[in-house]
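Need residues for this backbone.
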């Protein structure tokens, strides 16, 4: 059974960071990006913004590394979730996440990660430019394939025009 995933298209991201704010409000009731489960990373040199969130890995390193077995997959949603009754706050999950998607909130003394908002991710709902969407895994691959094909076609056209002396 496939589950929907967050699809991130950094090329569409404008860096408005609304995704961070709605996430923090949804989960903590405050407009504070440090409490967001999605983070927009800015690559200064390139002027590029990249929203980063949990990829809900099939073979989740955070789950494997957790010494108290506080991280498990919610089979109904497909999300990797933290059980705060079991979490001891050691932050091992934060250190092993290859995407930097696990965070520690010192004021709450707990780790946080994307939980897909129980199937209605607010970051995707409020992203006006559709840099963050919630889609079936097959749709994600098809969309990326179309973008890659469009780029190849444009490159071929540009190359043909250069060869023709236009």
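Answer:
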């Amino acid at each position: 059974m496939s589950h929907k995933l967050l699809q991130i298209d950094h090329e569409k991201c404008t860096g408005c960071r609304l995704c961070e704010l709605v996430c923090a409000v949804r989960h903590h009731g405050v407009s504070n990006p440090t409490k967001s489960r999605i983070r927009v990373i800015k690559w200064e040199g390139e002027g590029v913004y990249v929203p980063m969130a949990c990829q809900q890995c099939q073979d989740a390193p955070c789950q494997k590394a957790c010494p108290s077995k506080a991280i498990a997959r919610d089979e109904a949603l497909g999300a990797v979730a933290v059980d705060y009754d079991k979490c001891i706050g050691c932050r091992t999950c934060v250190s092993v996440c290859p995407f930097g998607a696990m965070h520690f909130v010192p004021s709450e003394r707990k780790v946080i990660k994307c939980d897909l908002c129980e199937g209605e991710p607010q970051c995707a709902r409020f992203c006006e430019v559709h840099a963050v969407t919630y889609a079936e895994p097959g749709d994600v691959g098809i969309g990326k394939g179309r973008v890659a094909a469009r780029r190849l076609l444009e490159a071929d056209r540009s190359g043909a025009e250069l060869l023709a002396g236009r």
